[in-house]
Amino acid sequence: MRGGDRRPGGPTVVAERAASSGRSSGYPAGLSTGHSGSVTTPIYVETFIRADLDRVWQLTQDTALHPRWDARFSRITPVEALATGGYRFRYELRLPLHTLAGTGTSLGERRRLDGTRTSALRFTTPDRLSPLGPGRGYWRYVPSADGVAFVSLGMYAENAVARRLYTRLGFTLDAALASFGPVGAERPPA
């Protein structure tokens, strides 16, 4: 798999700015600009979880549990179910002086014959202080005898103005080209 293998170990995290460098990133096309005309930043994360697929699915798909393990959110609230099997939701991230808020749509899920599951979503925020603008992504769950490879790809339009503001305030917003993973895991080219 891209970014690492399925052996136990820490997550492999890669953020690329291929669109700004003029090279092809190998990721699906779609989001090329966002707030302030900024480029999309794909973020790929892969980790191996020693647990049953159904348990990993349950813990990652429950919107009440999500903020406990994903620091990008303080709360996720489902708003309405969709006829296609997904749902609309609101999200927020409480910061000391401001709460970032946005909306999203879970596009549903897909289960393959090999046991792999995928869930996809789209999200956006009108908040001009959000470092991330509109985006989309998916989670893929690849079961094996020892556990589950959990793969995430998110594509976010950057809000360059907000990112500069947070950087000046001393916040670190990127895992740019950082890789955390098992010894010997391949890192995608920079």
Radius of gyration: 17 Å
CATH homologous superfamily annotation: START domain
How many domains? Answer: 1
Major sheet details: 8 strands, antiparallel
Inertia-based shape: globular
Specify the helix fraction band.
10-25%
The CATH topology comes to: Alpha-D-Glucose-1,6-Bisphosphate, Chain A, domain 4
The fraction of residues in strands falls at: 35-45%
* N-end to C-end Cα span: 17 Å
Care to describe what's here?
The protein is globular. The longest helix has 9 residues. Helix content is 14%, strand content 39%. It has one domain: Alpha-D-Glucose-1,6-Bisphosphate, Chain A, domain 4 (2-Layer Sandwich), CATH 3.30.530.20. By secondary structure, the chain is mostly beta strands. It has an 8-stranded antiparallel sheet with strand order 1-2-8-7-6-5-4-3.
Briefly characterize the structure:
This protein is mostly beta strands and 190 residues long.
Which SSEs are present, and which pair or pack?
Layout: E1 12-15, H1 18-21, E2 40-49, H2 53-61, H3 66-69, E3 75-81, E4 87-94, E5 99-111, E6 117-124, E7 132-144, E8 147-158, H4 160-168
Antiparallel strand pairs: 1-2, 2-8, 3-4, 4-5, 5-6, 6-7, 7-8
